[in-house]
Write a structure and sequence with these properties.
With 277 residues, the protein is α/β, with parallel strands linked by helices. The chain has a domain at 84-150. Helices cover 33% and strands 22% of the residues. The strands form two sheets. Strands 6-7-8-3-9-10 form a six-stranded mixed β-sheet, with helices on both faces. Strands 2-1-4-5 form a four-stranded antiparallel β-sheet. Helix 4 (106-119) packs across helix 5 and helix 7 (193-199) crosses helix 8. The site of adenosine-5'-triphosphate (ATP) has 18 residues, from strand 2 and helix 1.
Length: 277
């Protein structure tokens, strides 16, 4: 479904080139769920933008469904941390936005948006505006917009980092249910160890910048809400924490991961004002 082969990426800044990714290789099977985790500034968001075709690799190759990506792909959705909601459009119009951009006729796009909103529990808020929604509801609206597109690959950049722990867990449950029901391939970036282990069938640990594959952890036990209470879940969290420990040390002592959902991320030195988020 998605394959990175020796992918590197350099940002051109005013004074110099900044290497964000340094030869990253991995593959995600169709319908699988891959989580990317790693120190702050190691290139996670960059990897996601490359997977969506919004950036082109400086070296190596990104293949989606067997094809090199020379432009954004219609059948990929991207959910950013700030949701990208338009304040002057209703919930229904916001959910239909991706379809509007793809020039789907009004009636069809509203039907698909309505169905997607229902699946995330927003069926009663079609005519509300984003400012009238809570943070968790806005997050679900952003998710509905991606679902309405009926895409085969959904890329998510820390989609739940702005919500509190309880809500975050219920949204994680929702993501799990939707992934099972819809069968899309999921690529998710997170700073949370627990979230990675709950949602990732495989977990890719990136090294400090320039990001390279540091570890790839198989997590066959994931897939049910009950996993969160399982001894195997805690063991997997420990395994991931160990894999991250070395990388965290290397990342300018920026505490890059969250413990129990509490953000402890320091601003890593060297991380410029151009964060892709
Ligand atoms: N548009 C840009 N122009 C120049 N440099 C950039 C740009 N976007 C990101 N970078 C730099 O590339 C590196 C990787 O950035 P990226 O946003 O991919 O990291 P990240 O792993 O997502 O970090 P975080 O966990 O903090 O979100 C960082 O050093 C960042 O400063
Ligand atoms: Mg990022």
């Amino acid at each position: 479904m998605l394959r990175f082969t020796d992918v590197s990426y350099e940002y051109q800044t005013r004074n110099a080139a900044l290497q964000a990714l340094g030869g990253l290789s991995f593959a995600v099977e169709e319908g699988d769920s891959l989580v990317i985790i790693g120190p702050s500034g190691c290139g996670k968001s960059t990897a996601l933008l490359l997977a969506c075709g919004l950036l082109q690799p400086s070296g190596g190759e990104v293949l989606v469904a067997g094809r090199p990506l020379d432009a954004p792909r219609q059948s990929t959705a991207l959910i950013l941390q700030d949701f990208g909601l338009l304040p002057w459009k209703t919930v229904l119009q916001n959910a239909a936005l991706g379809l509007e951009i793809r020039k789907v006729a009004r009636r069809e796009r509203e039907n698909r948006a309505r169905a997607a909103l229902q699946s995330v529990g927003l069926g009663d808020f079609l005519q509300a505006f984003p400012r009238e929604l809570s943070g968790g509801m806005r997050q679900r609206l952003a998710l509905a917009r991606a679902l309405a597109l009926d895409v085969s690959l959904i890329c998510m950049d820390e989609p739940l980092s702005a919500v509190d722990t309880m809500l975050r867990e219920s949204l994680q449950d929702l993501l799990l249910v939707l992934w099972h029901e819809r069968g899309y391939t999921s690529l998710l970036v997170t700073h949370s160890i627990e979230e990675a282990v709950f949602l990732g069938r495989r977990i890719l640990v990136l090294s400090a910048r320039p990001g390279r594959l540091s570890a790839l952890i198989d997590n066959p036990g994931m897939g049910t809400a009950a996993y969160r209470g399982d001894a195997a879940f805690y063991a997997k969290c420990s395994e991931l924490r160990r894999a991250l420990a070395g990388e965290g040390d290397a990342a300018n002592k920026g505490n890059a991961v969250e413990e129990n959902g509490v953000a402890s991320k320091a601003v890593a030195a060297g991380k410029g004002a151009f964060d892709a988020r």
